[in-house]
């Protein structure tokens, strides 16, 4: 049986190979007035074909002339013998010539009129209007799944069922063209460019629109752009692609966490995250780490009120619409891709060597009047160890990604299915994350009035991670903290057991490898995201649409802290933490969509209702008391504590949108939505959010319509109102919580108010004006957009301070204050060179000014000031939000060098400072260092952001170079505050080696000290550690090679692509930390603080993509 199956496979494979030889063999001939016999000899000499015929049936002496340039042999034979008494038939590599029977013409006529069709081979070339071949253009026989792709010279060959069939030819950026064959065996097809992609479809709320009809500010990132560079997560695919959109990914976290801000930040204490909609399902949890970027077909970013108002109360921060891949009409296609990446820390801290540390110790102990005996002798065995702890605690990370996609369909039914596996080992020891995902999509035109579709994505993501702390620091900071002279392993290869007697200042964490080599914490995320959609045609132009969707996320955590004793790190009792969090989100939409075109008028009307329900459950339990590491479950503990919450809420909405166009020149969009949210009290539960926009397509006016220079010019203006409901649930009521208190001699637990409810609480309101222009020039070789916006956020949701005597820990949230974001966005797309060598550029840049206009006042009538969170050591905030400044502006002392000899008297009034101690400016001239000397010294938000993507290609080789940048913002380098103080009990950065002495008065670092006043002054939050965070980063460089299709024409493989790429290759910045994009706090009140997050990485990737 196995042998027979193998034999059948070989036969079929051979038939496929032979058939394809005829379809791909092309020759060049220039023969004038030669006989048919001479023509046959020429073809046999230049190919592997052999002619078989009887001399009496073929007129070999007939004179013919043939001119062919890389033309299929079958096409030449059709021209020579098509209207003669000789027929030709190709079998294998043999061409049979025979006399045509007299009844053949009659038979052909009968077959033309019957359902049975004769198969024909049609060949040709596809090019643009300049004659440039369009490699990869799609050719499909209309009404069938039969299709092929043009090769790198634009040539194609296709078997059609009927010589009078119609070919549908399409190519990205060009208008689709239908070509009737009318019996032709060879056709050359010229495609016309669609002006700036104006015929392209953009996904908007509850529908799609042609790009030419858009009246709002919408950015589209196509599948072509998404796939142009290897990406392992959503943020990499989006970063730098769209003007006005800032993606901040703090370090190289394994789960790819990131923050998105569209047109600045408008909320002070509420969320500034945009609404994320995936295949029509608005997400409650905006985590993208479980969504495979290779499953994404397009990303549309709605930025102004005209585009976002259809989402009402959730649209103040913009909307990001993600559309996953769908099946396409054509033969089934199977695609496999694999990527292997090696990751290394992109930057390392420059720390002192052991010898530099010893010399600092000597100076520090001299300055503290203490003995330096231990430190004076460099030959002491203590100083012979010089470990690079940043190297000991890290490794090369490895990431593997495997994707399998199967898609296809007929005109009525299309399908797509994919599977993905990703395995990433972190650069920190004992950290890793895996992601398994499955996705299916099915769309079917059931009959002429009903179309249905489904999208389902399931994923499972297990993660192992190590300890962090409240400031987002990870185990990595322990390696920076630790002295280079401390041993990592003992003579037996075990973790070194170091105590205070063997060396000075080993610190509390005697071996930073311990936390990473203990059992890790586990975090398992399961997600199911999907929806069902139905489109019902009620009558011509009127459709009823329904969308039922859900997003279910479950996160299970487990952490065991074992019993151990390693050096001074001792834990005598084990403990277990278990958590179980679930987010359940259901949505149901129903819309009526009416379209009517008459005369020069184009009318579209959408009305709908929507209901969304969410259920959030949080459960956490902690137990301790384990006496044996084998008893590592919660039930084995002797002491327990647990917390939990269960929150249910929802959103009920009605909405409408009107699109009107006159003569394809004047466009109007009007939108309104009414939302009711459970997050607000009964009297403030509903809000109405309207918007309107106008557009004038000047290029469609008679005086420009026929311009050969200006292909498109459209002016836009919009204004509207959207809302922000992103606060905690049920803040409008006073809630109770369990509270321990003393009753007699005992501690008992009772209930008390945890907050003060505010029944007048309502949405944050966002009013936005947008003025824009879209343009395209020189056959759309240059196209772009320019937008000016003015966005004012009012009725901000802010906690209003109350006296402590109120007895409530959390003050009420009230609607006070306003913030303005105004700016300009510019994006341009150019095709610099065309032809065999192509060069295209995408560039965007945005300017944004953020300002707090009003933030209210406290109970005493004084302007309210909202501080950020305290930073370590200083125990004071570095950020302060006040009217007239950006949200979270930096407010701190101004560093003024060091006190010098001769300034002893003045220095003594500043915390008893002495020469060599840090000096700060006395801004209020009172001779003291106090709160009046703190000043606003910088903005944590960049003024300019942008990106540039250059793509170069020559035939089947392409090179992509992508860069992104930001400028105008500052970043507080907390690591320097910790490790550049000149104190001996932590490892110091190399810059601290240039410390002040009487002989080195211009040093960059203060005098070393064992502690006391110098330590206090050296750690004050000041401009000494505030740095320019502007950067230009070569984000990705990718070199891609597509193997020529001719290689695979005799195999089951249809295409193969190889890619070599590098991510985070180069960063140009003045910032001395690990990453100028780092931010250790999600809260904007404490923005721009770098507290040694998970290090970012350079990634070197090798990828392969194979089509079957």
TrEMBL record:
Subcellular localization, as worded in the UniProt entry: Cell outer membrane
TM region positions: none
A Gene Ontology cellular-component term: cell outer membrane
Main localisation: membrane
Secretion signal span: 1-22
Pfam families: CarbopepD_reg_2 (PF13715), Plug (PF07715), TonB_dep_Rec_b-barrel (PF00593)
Keyword Lipid biosynthesis included in the entry's annotation: no
Keyword Transferase: no
Domain of life per record: Bacteria
Family: Belongs to the TonB-dependent receptor family.
Designated name of the protein: TonB-linked outer membrane protein, SusC/RagA family
Source lineage: Bacteria, Pseudomonadati, Bacteroidota, Flavobacteriia, Flavobacteriales
């Amino acid at each position: 049986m196995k042998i027979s199956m193998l034999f059948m496979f070989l036969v079929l494979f051979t038939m496929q190979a032979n058939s394809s030889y005829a379809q791909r063999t092309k020759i060049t001939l220039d023969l004038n007035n030669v006989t048919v016999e001479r023509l046959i000899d020429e073809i046999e000499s230049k190919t592997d074909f052999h002619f078989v015929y009887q001399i009496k049936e073929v007129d070999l002496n007939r004179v013919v002339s043939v001119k062919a340039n890389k033309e299929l042999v079958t096409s030449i034979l059709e021209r020579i013998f098509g209207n003669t008494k000789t027929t030709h038939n190709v079998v294998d590599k043999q061409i049979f010539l025979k006399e045509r029977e007299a009844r053949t013409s009659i038979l052909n006529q009968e077959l033309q009129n019957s359902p049975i069709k004769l198969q024909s081979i049609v060949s040709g070339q596809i090019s643009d209007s300049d004659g440039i071949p369009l490699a990869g253009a799609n050719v499909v026989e209309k009404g069938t799944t039969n299709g092929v792709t043009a090769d790198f010279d634009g040539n194609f060959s296709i078997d059609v069922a009927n010589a009078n069939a119609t070919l549908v030819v399409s190519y990205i950026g060009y208008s689709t063209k239908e070509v009737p064959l009318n019996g032709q065996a060879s056709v050359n097809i010229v495609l016309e460019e669609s002006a700036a992609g104006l015929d392209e479809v953009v996904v908007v709320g509850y529908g799609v629109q042609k790009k030419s009809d858009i009246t709002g500010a919408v950015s589209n990132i196509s599948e072509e752009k998404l796939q142009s560079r290897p990406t392992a997560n959503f943020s990499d695919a989006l970063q730098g692609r769209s003007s006005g959109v800032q993606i901040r990914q703090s370090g190289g976290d394994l789960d790819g966490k990131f923050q998105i801000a569209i047109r600045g930040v408008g909320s002070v204490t509420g969320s500034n995250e945009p609404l994320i909609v995936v295949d029509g399902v608005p997400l409650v949890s905006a985590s993208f780490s479980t969504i495979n970027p290779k499953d994404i077909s397009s990303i549309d970013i709605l930025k102004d009120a005209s585009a976002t108002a259809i989402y009402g109360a959730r649209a103040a921060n913009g909307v990001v619409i993600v559309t996953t891949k769908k099946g396409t009409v054509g033969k089934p296609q199977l695609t496999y891709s694999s990527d292997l990446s090696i990751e290394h820390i992109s930057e390392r801290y420059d720390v002192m060597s052991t010898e530099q540390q010893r010399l600092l110790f000597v100076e520090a102990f001299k300055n503290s009047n203490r003995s330096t005996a231990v430190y004076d002798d460099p030959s002491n065995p203590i100083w012979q160890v010089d470990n690079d702890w940043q190297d000991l605690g890290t490794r090369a990370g490895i990431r593997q990604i495997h994707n399998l996609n199967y898609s296809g369909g007929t005109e009525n039914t299309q399908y797509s299915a994919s599977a993905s596996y990703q395995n990433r080992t972190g650069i920190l020891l004992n950290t890793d994350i895996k992601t398994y995902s499955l996705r299916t999509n099915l769309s079917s035109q059931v009959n002429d009035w009903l179309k249905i579709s489904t999208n389902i994505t399931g994923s499972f993501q297990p993660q192992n991670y190590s300890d962090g702390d409240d400031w987002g620091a990870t185990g990595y900071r322990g390696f920076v903290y630790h002295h280079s002279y401390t041993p990592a392993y003992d003579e037996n290869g075990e973790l070194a057991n170091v105590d205070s007697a063997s060396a000075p200042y080993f610190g509390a964490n005697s071996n930073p490898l311990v936390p990473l080599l203990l059992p890790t914490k586990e975090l398992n995320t399961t997600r199911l995201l999907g929806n069902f959609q139905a489109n019902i045609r009620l009558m011509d132009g009127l459709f009823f649409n329904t969308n039922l969707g859900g997003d279910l996320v479950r996160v299970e955590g487990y952490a065991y802290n074992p019993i151990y004793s390693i050096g001074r790190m001792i834990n005598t009792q084990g403990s277990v933490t278990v958590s179980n969090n679930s987010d359940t989100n259901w949505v149901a939409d129903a819309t009526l969509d009416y379209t009517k075109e008459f005369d020069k008028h184009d009318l579209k009307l959408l009305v709908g209702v929507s209901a969304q329900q969410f259920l959030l459950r949080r459960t956490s339990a902690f137990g301790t008391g384990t006496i044996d590491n084998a008893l590592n479950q919660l039930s084995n503990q002797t002491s327990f504590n647990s917390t939990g919450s269960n929150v249910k809420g929802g959103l009920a909405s009605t909405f409408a949108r009107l699109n009107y166009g006159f003569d394809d020149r004047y466009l109007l969009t009007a939108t309104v939505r009414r939302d009711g949210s459970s997050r607000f009290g009964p009297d403030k539960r509903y809000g109405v959010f309207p918007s309107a926009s106008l557009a004038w397509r000047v290029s469609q006016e008679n005086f420009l319509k026929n311009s050969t220079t200006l292909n498109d010019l459209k002016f836009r203006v919009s204004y509207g109102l959207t809302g922000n409901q992103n606060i905690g649930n049920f803040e409008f009521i006073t809630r109770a919580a369990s509270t321990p208190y003393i009753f007699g001699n005992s501690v008992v637990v009772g209930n008390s108010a945890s907050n003060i409810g505010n029944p007048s609480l309502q949405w944050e309101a966002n009013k936005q004006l947008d003025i824009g222009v879209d343009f395209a020039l020189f056959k759309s070789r240059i196209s772009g957009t320019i937008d000016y916006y003015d966005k004012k956020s009012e009725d901000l949701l802010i906690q209003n301070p109350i006296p402590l005597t109120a007895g409530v820990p959390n003050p009420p949230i009230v609607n006070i204050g306003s913030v303005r974001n105004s700016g300009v966005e510019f994006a341009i797309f150019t095709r610099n060179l065309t032809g065999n060598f192509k060069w295209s550029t995408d560039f965007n840049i945005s300017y944004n000014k953020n300002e707090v206009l009003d933030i209210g006042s406290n109970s005493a009538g004084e302007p309210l000031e909202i501080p950020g969170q305290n930073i370590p050591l200083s125990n004071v905030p570095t950020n302060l939000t006040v009217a007239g400044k950006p949200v979270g502006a930096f407010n701190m002392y101004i560093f003024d060098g060091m006190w010098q000899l001769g300034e002893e008297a003045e220095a003594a009034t500043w915390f008893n400072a002495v020469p060599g101690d840090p000096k700060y400016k006395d801004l209020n001239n009172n001779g003291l260092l106090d709160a009046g000397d703190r000043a606003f010294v910088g903005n944590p938000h960049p003024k300019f952001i942008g990106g540039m993507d250059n793509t170069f290609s020559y035939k089947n080789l392409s090179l992509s170079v992508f860069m992104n940048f930001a400028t105008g913002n500052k970043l507080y380098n907390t690591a320097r505050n910790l490790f550049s103080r000149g104190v001996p009990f932590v490892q110091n950065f190399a810059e601290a080696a240039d410390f002040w002495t009487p002989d080195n008065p211009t040093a960059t670092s203060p005098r070393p000290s064992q502690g006391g006043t110098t330590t206090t002054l050296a750690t004050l939050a000041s401009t000494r550690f505030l740095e320019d965070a502007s950067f230009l980063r070569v984000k990705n460089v990718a070199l891609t090679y597509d193997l020529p299709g001719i290689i695979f024409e005799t195999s089951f493989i249809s295409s193969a692509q190889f890619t070599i790429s590098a991510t985070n290759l180069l960063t140009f910045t003045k910032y001395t930390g690990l990453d100028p994009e780092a931010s250790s706090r999600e809260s904007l009140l404490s923005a721009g603080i770098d507290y040694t997050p998970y290090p970012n990485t350079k990634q070197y990737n090798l990828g392969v993509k194979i089509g079957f």
